[in-house]
């Protein structure tokens, strides 16, 4: 593909958390650290963060919502040692590593993750340990500033969708993105905006419906990486 007289590299963009690696058990442990109570795995799989807090926080904790909100994000983003320790609870999704190794032979692989840059080495190590390709790939990560609104520090700061769009735009400047795989429906408007031809939603059935992906721009929805086993991306 040609863009402004420059040949663009064919690329596949994939999310990491809950697209390649299951984070549910770690999230459950983070909630236990933050709220000092057991939050059922089912709740982690089905409820959003605000819903979990309102359901499981004590009245006294709800009076300290800002403090606990910041503590939750500090653990999640590995600003505290316990957050790093809990990475051991992550698990790779079946078939994903094998399939990405195949795809990386024909297209550049771009990991576009909401993890922050302080976890770069940890993330590469985890991907390597789980068998995902880490040579000749791009790892594009969020910054702490991208979470300033989510952490309750700056109400006018960027949303996570704003951050994803900014980073995806940078990737698109030098790459012809032919396929994207993500588990969060809210990002698919971005992929449609940038005219990615193959926009694949990895269904999280306990939280979303296939329609949630299609309504925001997904071209197809899969329930397992195995469905992509014989479906390599087509360079343009």
User: Which regions are unreliable across 5 or more consecutive residues at pLDDT < 50?
Assistant: 1-5
Total number of helices: 11
Major sheet strand order: 7-6-3-8-9-10
Q: Supply the number of structural domains.
A: 2
State the total count of DSSP E strands. Answer: 10
So what's the overall shape? globular
User: So, the CATH homologous superfamily of the largest domain?
Assistant: HAD superfamily/HAD-like
Helix fraction bin: 25-40%
Instruction: Enter the CATH topology name of the largest domain.
Output: Rossmann fold
Largest β-sheet summary: 6 strands, parallel
Give the overall pLDDT as a whole number.
94
The helix-and-strand class reads alpha/beta
Fraction in beta strands: 15-25%
Report the radius of gyration as a whole number of Å.
18 Å
CATH architect. name of the largest domain: 3-Layer(aba) Sandwich
Report how far the terminal alpha carbons are from each other.
Answer: 6 Å
Taken in chain order, the helices and strands follow as EEEEHHHHHHEHEHEHEHEHE
CATH class group of the largest domain: Alpha Beta
Structure explained in plain terms:
The longest helix is centred in the C-terminal third of the chain and has 15 residues. The protein has a 6-stranded parallel β-sheet, sandwiched between helices. Strands 1-2 form a two-stranded antiparallel ribbon. The chain is globular and about 55 Å long. The N and C termini lie close together (6 Å). The chain is 39% helix and 19% strand. It has 2 domains: 159 residues, HAD superfamily/HAD-like (Rossmann fold, 3-Layer(aba) Sandwich); 66 residues. By secondary structure, the protein is α/β, with parallel strands linked by helices. 31% of the residues are buried.
């Amino acid at each position: 593909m040609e863009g402004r007289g420059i040949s663009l590299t064919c690329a596949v963009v994939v999310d990491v958390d809950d697209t390649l690696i299951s984070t549910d058990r770690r999230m459950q442990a983070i909630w236990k650290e933050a709220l000092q109570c057991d939050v059922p795995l089912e709740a982690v799989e089905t409820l959003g963060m605000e819903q979990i807090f309102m359901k499981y926080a004590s009245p006294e904790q709800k009076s300290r919502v800002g403090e606990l909100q910041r503590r939750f994000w500090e653990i999640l983003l590995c600003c505290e040692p316990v957050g790093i320790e809990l990475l051991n609870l992550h698990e790779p999704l079946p078939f994903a590593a094998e399939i990405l190794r195949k795809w990386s032979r024909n297209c550049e692989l771009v990991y576009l993750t909401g993890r922050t840059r302080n976890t770069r080495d940890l993330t590469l190590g985890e991907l390597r340990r789980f068998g995902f390709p880490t040579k000749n790939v791009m790892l594009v990560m969020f910054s702490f500033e991208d979470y300033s609104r989510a952490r309750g520090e700056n109400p006018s700061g960027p949303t996570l969708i704003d951050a994803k769009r900014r980073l995806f735009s940078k990737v698109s400047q030098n790459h012809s993105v032919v396929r994207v795989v993500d588990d969060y429906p809210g990002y698919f408007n971005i992929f449609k905006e940038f005219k990615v031809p193959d926009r694949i939603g990895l269904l999280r059935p306990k939280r979303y419906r296939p329609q949630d992906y299609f309504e925001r721009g997904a071209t197809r929805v899969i329930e397992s990486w195995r469905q992509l086993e014989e479906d390599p991306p087509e360079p343009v």
